[in-house]
Amino acid sequence: MSEWISVDDRLPSLTSRFLCIGDAGSSEIIVFLAFNGGGGKFKIKGRDCSELVTHWMPLPAPPESVKCPL
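Now predict its structure.
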């Protein structure tokens, strides 16, 4: 699996989803999935959450053996 990348070192350049870790305040650490709409803006459901993100990593490819029933 990939290593965590600090937003101070590099921001993702691709428009895609990323696993993010962030500081929610009060010493709380959160892990969440966010979308990068370009320009280093991390978003959840269209809302900018960039101020929370401290580190990110690309999502791995899904397993080939999983089949969607739909």
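The chain has a mean pLDDT of 77.
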